[in-house]
Amino acid sequence: MMINITEIIRKMMGWCPNTAILNKKEEEIYMVSYEGRFVDKIKGMGFRGFLSVLHLVFGAWLIITALRVLAKPQIFPWYVMDISFISSGILLAIGISSLMIFFNFVKSANVHRILALVNIALLMVFSLYLSLSLISGEFMYLNSIPVGEFIYSIFDRPYRYYAFGAVSLTLFTLIVGIPSILTFFNRPAGEKKTRFLAATLFILIIVFVSLSVYYLYLNKQKANLLEESGKNDGYELYRIDPGTFNPGIFGASNVYPYFLDSISSTTGHPVSKDTYEAIQFLRNRETGKVLTWWDYELEIKAADKEPVISYASEEIKQTIGRSSSLYDKFDSHEKIVDVSRFFTTDSEDTAKSIAEKYGANIVYVSRQRMNNIMIPVMLPIANPDIYAQNQDVIKSPDEYFNKLIKPTMGYKFNSSTELKYFEKIFENRDVVIYQLK
């Protein structure tokens, strides 16, 4: 019989084989029990757990997005600030509601379906509100960029002050609604917790009150910048001191020290010192109506004069950067076509007859945008077939400029050309003004 020396020594030191066996069994039982609890917990989460994670991710994303937009508000033009606050407020509400669903997912109840339904309703309001103020031209570049790049750009739209087109707005709304839609159609287990719902409503009320206070604060800051306003024409001219706001909001304040805005108009834009000088010059002259493109109607109203056209016609609303069925008051298409013909014709006699038709004796030209933006926009309005008739010309920038831009009256005004019926009465770097002789 062989003696196990090692075992004898271990026993002398107090080791008991029966105790070791029991400990081993307990360890195995503990490991199985722990593993079972861990795996069962994961399995127990199931679809509800997956939904809770979605609410966490989407809720955090929406709250961060809204706060980032609100942290750098664009206070000009007025309607952009309104869009940013209303849209961000809705996203904040959806995000907070989603986080509340996540933090209570262990004991889910039908109250989650109520919150999900509220989120869906808010998304419908979000989509309907922004659909009234869509950016133009999305369909024009939709086919010219990769699908992945377009999808990525959708998530960047809120940071560009919610500048959605019809397609991007639809996709953004559907993506944001995924957790709430799934939660609404998933019947949770458990009892209702009315206190939980009351807490959620209380938090949302605090958020919206805070947003309102912030909005009023910005408007007060904005009011302190007001330089002058027109009671009848409803324009506001704000002086922007250097360093007052982030220059990226509307242009460097040393270049554009003023902002011309109007609650009744969506054409607010920054104004240079030279442009303000032109406004003051025009204000001090007795004139009839003023011929200029609708982008500059506020400058004419700030000069206490009447522009022939104040806005685009509904037929050319695709040329408006961000048209809105809430704010827009469209002008007649006949006037738009006539003003387009006035600036794009190569005949001074034609231009004179159009000016006389509308009782206009002043021509106001903003020099920086006339040749490369305004004339190209007005050409197809005056002649819808102009580009189809000049396919070969538009392929060459030089030929395009020499044949289609240079002969126009708009180019001649912008170049300070001596004319037969029109006399130049004002000129600086940004503006040139002519008067009908």
Helix content: 55-70%
Total number of distinct structural domains: 2
Coarse structural class: alpha+beta
Distance between the termini: 135 Å
Strand order of the largest sheet: 1-2-3-4
Number of DSSP-assigned strands: 8
List low-confidence stretches: 29-43
Order of helices and strands: HHHHHHHHEEEEHEHHHEHHHHEE
Q: Whole-number average pLDDT?
A: 84
Q: What characteristic shape results from the CA principal axes? A: elongated
Quickly count the helices.
Answer: 16
Roughly how many Å is the radius of gyration? 33 Å
Bin the strand percentage.
5-15%
Profile the largest sheet: 4 strands, antiparallel
Kindly describe this structure.
By secondary structure, this protein is α+β, with helices and mostly antiparallel strands. It folds into two domains: 17-219, no CATH class; 273-436, Rossmann fold (3-Layer(aba) Sandwich). It is 56% helix and 8% strand. It is built from 16 helices and eight strands. It has helices at 5-12, 17-71, 78-103, 111-131, 138-142, 147-154, 166-184, 194-223, 273-283, 297-302, 333-344, 348-357, 367-382, 391-394, 397-405, 409-414; strands at residues 226-229, 236-239, 258-261, 269-271, 289-291, 360-366, 422-427, 431-436. A four-stranded antiparallel β-sheet has the order 1-2-3-4. A four-stranded mixed β-sheet has the order 5-6-8-7, with helices on both faces.
